[in-house]
Amino acid sequence: MTFRGNHVDELISASLTGDLTDAERLELNAHLVRCETCRATLTAFTAERRILSGMPLAEPPRDLSARVRTGIESGAGRRWWQRPGGLIVVGASLATVAAAVLAVVVIGNLDRSGVGQQSGSPVASVSLDPGPSAVATSPATEGPTPVPALSLGPGELGYLSLVGAPLEALRLSFINDATGDTIQAGTVSGPPIAAALSPSGRWLAYITQKGETGANEVWVLHLADGKVVPLGCTEAASFTDRLAWSPDGAYLAFTLIATDLGANSGCPSNDGATQTADVWFYDVTQGERIRLTRSGDAYAASFQPGAAGSTLLISHAAESPWSEAVPLAADPSNVERIEGVFMPLFSPDGSRAIFWNGTMTPSGGSWHFSVGGMPQLSKDFRSAGPASPWIGDSLFTDLTPAGGEAFASGSFAWGPDSDRFAFWDGAWTGVPQSPDGTYPEQRAVYIGAVSAGMLTAESRLATELPEAAWIVGVALPTANEAAVTIGLPSAGIGDPPSAYLQVIPFDAPGGRTIGGGVEPPPWNGPAVYGY
User: Which residue of 133, 411, 437, 446 pairs with 459 in a disulfide if CB–CB is 3.0 to 4.6 A?
Assistant: First the structure.
């Protein structure tokens, strides 16, 4: 295979026609991860192919046969490339077609009604530069047809669903599994990987992958009228998928690692230096997107339930990480500093929190735990007494970090009863701690309960993942089951992404797949539950 410099044009071209071998597909995927130029080439070719495939067929001119016959006779049997000026004329024609296609792509991507306009649903527009921190959004525009309201009752399961044909736009919607009610969220360039429903039940926050760029996009969807608001683009990194709602549902806090995707990326403005992490929040009552920190090492953790006003826990990545409790409605100059606590997640009733403890190391614009990284469970805040509730217990009782090697990262979630919790995607860096060498497993989900003991090898949820599949997200809609989104490897370049959403009981065999019956399945998940 010959490449253009360090690029793989021939592999990209073959991927669009389905002519890649398995080895070539692996080679192309590996190259795209590290080559921005080839990712841009693939995106451009894909857009051009999509546009050309959608052009309507035109009737040929009535005198076409006569013109062709005259051309053949005048050519005296010579091929087109043998005629004077043939190469130049054809080359110019191809250049003209390419320029026309490019013009269509550029014009089609011009934003006529605000940043992040989504087809098919009203969208709030974001002004690009109203000031250094705040970005105001305009009221939702009226769509051609009204979008029905959608709500989730207590314990009802809702999930994001992404559909699309090969080389076509991906259409996102949110579905109430109990009623089948659906609300459209427009088009996106990649699958959803995280979601959080506001306590008011009126807004859904979610994160989607941004095509092949290696970045993510943060959004909110108003479930009453279908308004979609883009909140920013971020480098895809550990600990950036937390979406934290305030107890009253008025504020959403999230983390953005500043990234430069170019002027035409469609990302709302972010004046942070590239690869610096800061906390932003969105005020749903005012329609404002505000940058809260400027330290370059800050991550949104969670709001403290029951606290006076809205108190947000912000974590700072460092060799010895720490957190601070920031009251949004008061003077934040004197805030409580909590040493050794990173990304705490409060239980719904505020009685406890799960958090990270260990030594961290930077890698590019992101951080991970390098020594002793372990998820911890705090003491009960209601009865901790004079001792700090943040002197916690390891979430796993049968794991012993060997030489300080433990988890580099991972994710956890609480159930609605503030007793059950889940841990998944744990990137264990130490030696395996089971005879078969599989524990702890990154592709496993572990379920525990404060009242029944912590996590062990026996806490593994009964999930069966296809080869090369991975855990995207976990929600605990009830005290007895988990909704697990399982991402599947792509069938080929340009094919829409696929993910199973399975609802699996804790203590009984079986379970069900939501939206099943189609192979390959659409992308279903992540899931959330109604309050």
Answer: 446
Are 266 and 211 in contact by the 8 Å Cβ rule? The answer is no
**What single letter denotes the amino acid at residue 317?**
A
**Residue length of the chain:** 531
Q: Output the 3-class SS for 107-151.
A: HHHCCCCCCCCCCCCCECCECCCCCCCEEEECCCCCCCCCCCCCC
Q: Which residues contact 332 (CB under 8 A, 6 or more apart)?
A: 326
Contact 246, 255 (CB under 8 A): no
CB 30 within 8 A of CB 22: no
**Residues in Cβ contact with 313 at an 8 Å cutoff, skipping those fewer than 6 apart:** 301, 302, 303, 304, 323, 324, 325, 326, 344, 346
How far is the C-alpha of 266 from the C-alpha of 187, rounded, in Å? 13
Cα–Cα distance measured from residue 405 to residue 385, given in angstroms and rounded to the nearest whole number = 33
Tell me if the pTM is above 0.70.
yes
The percent of residues above 70 in pLDDT, for the chain, comes to 71
What CA–CA distance (Å, rounded) separates 423 from 441? 11
Distance between CA atoms of 162 and 172, rounded to whole angstroms?
5
Question: Residue with structure tokens 């002004």?
Answer: 127
Tell me which amino acid residue 1 is: M
Query: For 162-167, what is the mean pLDDT?
Result: 87
Higher confidence at residue 56 or residue 460?
460
CA distances from 330 to 133, 274, 292 (A): 18, 30, 13
Contact 157, 193 (CB under 8 A): no
- Per the CB < 8 A criterion, the answer to whether 410 and 396 are in contact is no
| Gap between the Cα atoms of 185 and 120, Å rounded | 8
